Amino acid sequence: MTTKQTLAPEMRTLMTGLAMGESPRWHEDRLWFSDWGAQKIIAVDIDGRSEVAVRVPFALPF
Amino acid sequence: MRREHDGSLVTHADLRSLSPYGWNEIVVDGRGNAYINGGPGIAMLAPDGSVRQVADSFAFPNGMAITPDNSTLIIAESHAKKLTAFDVAVDGTLSNRRVWADLGSGVPDGICIDADGAVWYADVPNKRCVRVREGGDVLQTVNADRGCFACMLSGPHRRTLFIVATEWRGMEKAAEVALERTGQLLTIAAPASGVGWP
Q: What region does A14 belong to: left with phi over 0, alpha with psi -120 to 50, or beta?
């Protein structure tokens, strides 16, 4: 019996349930991104621990 | 807007003198100059607060990235299916506009640069992120099951591609789709580290 080795890296789902993520930026060991439509800016670490960093007063830009 | 250390939001700059419409993407380079794009083109906001238009006439200006030496700005033109580059002068002026990569059927949204000088671009209608080199050769494709809006090399050593992806049914249904909360944050190991700005 042989073990099939796959060289392609695997995609991992770090967060779900977002309205619409945009503009991700790496800053101080966390990914910061805006969740358009949810009026939030979220910061999340590499293990998926997240918090709402900023609540913004504006809605979708379109 | 700018978030202060105490968490408060303050107005950082007012761009209404350049355009009454909203703005789209932003990148801040190593000199502290912020490039912001939207309907009129690209505006540059200097650290002293002065703002001026530095480029115009784009087919849907979208993601932008600047090389680590601050010398080249690359911008996604979603409707033209290409990446366009400019030389960046010390004073922030853009010149020598050229096609950096023709993407064929690719529709670029958010972009970032890696240590091999390649660009990753997120693609909404084709539901994928693609790594291309200057000239347009495709080096790698990462497929998703929903529209990829932006990607950023992040994490330790910036060696992981983070992707924000959402089901997309067009601009007119954006608010409706947002309520369905189909948005995800995906990660995948990348062959080269992220460099430059953002």
A: alpha
Residue A5 pLDDT level (bands cut at 50, 70, 90): low
Task: Read off the pLDDT of residues B104-141 as tens digits, 9 standing for 90 and up.
Answer: 999 999 999 999 999 999 999 999 999 999 999 999 99
Pick from A11, A23, A31: which is nearest to B142 by CB? Answer: A11
ipTM of the complex in this document:
0.94
Torsion of CA B187, B189, B192, B197, to 10 degrees: 10
Q: What is the DSSP letter of B90?
A: T
- Smallest CA–CA distance, residue B54 to chain A, in Å, is 22
Nearest CA in chain B to A48: B185
Structure-block tokens of residue B47: 């650290």
With beta carbons under 8 A apart, name residues in chain A contacting B179. Answer: 19, 37
